[in-house]
Amino acid sequence: MTTVVPAELSAGPARGSAVKDLTLPAWPVSGILLLYPLWWALGLGVLIFPLMAAPMLFLLVRRRAAGRPLRLPPGFAWWLIFLVAAVVSIAALGADPAGTVVERAAGRLPAVAYKLAMYVSITVLLLYAGNLTERELSRRRLVRLLAGMFVLTVLGGLLGMVAGNFEFTSPVEWLLPQGIRSKGFVRSLVHPYAAQIMDLVGGEAPRPAAPWGYTNTWGNNFCLLVSWLLVAAAATTSGRKRALAWLCLLVSIAPAVVSLNRGLWIGLGVVLLYVAARYVLAGKVWVLGAVALTAAAIALALTATPLGSTVQARLDNGKSNGVRAFLTEKALDGFAESPVIGYGGTRNTLGGRNSITVGESSECERCGNFTIGGNGQLWQLLYSHGAVGTVGYLGFFAYGLWRFRSDRSAIGVAGSAALVSSFSAMLWYNSLVTPLAFMVLAYALLWRNWIEGKQM
């Protein structure tokens, strides 16, 4: 007896193998997050993003060429406007606005090329993370990875507290010629250190920075990641893991205070108020009691420990206020002179805020030649890429907040809270590289939650 197999069934193995070939592996995303301590120790740090973007882009293009559609995130047109504006603004790179250090466009090009490469790499990360399926990398797994990054941030903060002078020469740093690795910008990329030593409240003291390079970046990432720890803790069925998560949150108060990072403190307040408002509007009034208990616990910690005097000392010593006001004014002046496309990149001021004759030196690295646009992502966008680039950048994240506003799941609230905190942080923090990476991963989670159904 001869069995006749329909053509559709006989083609099954070939079709199955084709589907298998089109599967996106999770390792480019999970490898960045899970192994970030290794990348930091090797001296790769943020350089891992363009390195991983290459295989991610290849895998996306290969799948698209095989006929599998490439999903684009809602509002992606806004982000494309920003990228185009960033490229077009390079045309103004040779301009020397009033009050800035004169330099040839070629001298400014490496820094601009670096930023563009990072923006493109983060774009690839957004597309790749958003096109992963639940089978390839579940949202629950990605949330846990982001929660792990918060734990890493806390551990780095503790390292900065107890061993502020800890640093070492990374393998990548060893491979670079002395003339290149001695440059401040290159050193910040490849030289691992635990803290920035600064004098803010009378006497030099370490401010946690590991593994993010700068104290401000450490504080920005703290705000962007803290909500994911709570989502992961709420989703786990393990009482031990939940207790460890709450212990980590409690311990994190110490480095958050010792960092003397006012932007971090404001950002945490914004996150707390936003999350509370979302839940109250959803009818969960009990959240108000939880907020009151949290505030009482923080107040008790500040009162019963030396952390309270540290906070007060920082509030009484606003040494950076004058510089920030000076740079904001310079950024707005530059924006008024080139409002459409900006200047293609940042500029250094002639001297300091009190005199053009005061400049940076080996004895006083922070006395002058400040970077216009270095005091916040908003000011950098306005100055470097003008109104077009700024509208594109802000429009993308604002559209995401609006598009996913009805998502009341844990992922929906945590993801939108991260984006809200980024809007407050852009007044004093710059986003490249890791803060922007965590922002687009939050966006990707919101996007996938919208497509695949709200399960967390």
TrEMBL record:
Q: Which domain of life is it from?
A: Bacteria
Keyword terms of this UniProt record: Membrane, Transmembrane, Transmembrane helix
* Transmembrane helix is among the record's keywords: yes
Q: Which residues cross the membrane?
A: 38-60, 72-92, 112-130, 142-166, 218-236, 243-258, 286-307, 382-402, 435-451
Quick check: keyword Transmembrane helix in the entry? yes
Q: Which PANTHER family match?
A: LIPOPOLYSACCHARIDE BIOSYNTHESIS PROTEIN PA4999-RELATED, TEICHURONIC ACID BIOSYNTHESIS PROTEIN TUAE
Descriptive protein name? Uncharacterized protein
**Organism of this sequence:** Actinoplanes cyaneus
